[in-house]
Amino acid sequence: MVKIDNIELGDFPLLLAPMEDVSDPPFRALCKRHGADVMYTEFISSEGLIRDAAKSVQKLDIYEDERPVGIQIFGGEEGPMRESAEIVERTNPDILDINFGCPVKKVVCKDAGAGILKNIPKMVTLTKAIVESTSLPVTVKTRLGWDESSKKIVEVAERLQDVGIKALSIHGRTRVQMYKGEADWTLIGEVKNNPRIHIPIFGNGDVDSPEKAIAMRERYGVDGVMIGRAAIGYPWIFNEIKHFMKTGEHLPAPTLEQRSAVAKEHLERSIKWKGEKLGVLEMRRHYSNYFKGVPHFKETRTKLVTTYDPNELIDILDSVIERHPVMA
To answer: How distant is the alpha carbon of residue 46 from its chain centre?
Structure first.
């Protein structure tokens, strides 16, 4: 049984990765229903939280049916991070997660996200301060290092464990790599198999099939996997992995009717939670994956990503089977 502090997660938990403008409550609800074991919110700016910025505060929204859920924060300064940890605790999540992995320039330039990988002592000091400022179990998500010459994740894992984190998720790329090339899991395996490490180690990067999830478990011994991009527009991946691990057989792929029904529900939830304009716009990144592999879908996809009227979008989704009967 894998546990984060006292939270039981099963034998090989599947975690939904925190993704900006993706891992919101509408999307998390669908992933939970389709087998994800642990939810993480989009990352939240510590500076935004302490300024009471509307977008940051909205990201604190969590719901009982998605537990266990972790709220993820990022920042490069101890004061705001401590204050934001106290704000997060009042929201009553199960876990507080620190983002030390985001490679985006606007985050990195503030010594936040993966930017802190250039200053490991500061990373450790900041983590210790947050652990001491909250009663929540603190976890960390990070990368192998800043670049090829500074992959210090084995040392980092030991030092973060020593200051009190309860689990570590590692993306198998450096910051310089961004999301290019293949994720390197060998160092993730070294961390997991380090006799000094006793907290759960979750691997992240390129897990997009049941076979890859099993390979990572068997080859590197990780306690679970965190799935990000492969779940966008495809929440079924979690149950597909679980079914394959249990039976050695693949679940049937979702039918076109199931895809259109879930895409429609996702759109409706998105509009309800974030309003019509944003709800419509931020759904656009999901449609390609919802309908991946459907022949001659280009015209329908173009309508989905250029239409602003929610009712028209729902009509398009309702008519997908009529438009593409060969896949029904």
So the answer is: 18
d(CA 227, CA 289): 15
pLDDT of residue 181: 84
102 classed as catalytic? yes
Identify whether residues 34 and 147 lie together within a single domain: yes
Classify residue 251 by its DSSP letter: P
Domain that holds residue 319: 256-327
One domain, residues 160 and 288: no
Cα dist. 230→46, 113, 216, 253 in Å?
28, 22, 15, 14
Q: How many domains does the chain have?
A: 2
294-311 confidence digits (pLDDT tens) = 888 899 999 999 999 999
Selected catalytic residue, list 102, 108, 191, 222: 102
* Residue 118 φ/ψ, nearest 5 degrees: -85, -5
Measure the CA–CA gap between 229 and 240, rounded to whole angstroms. Answer: 16
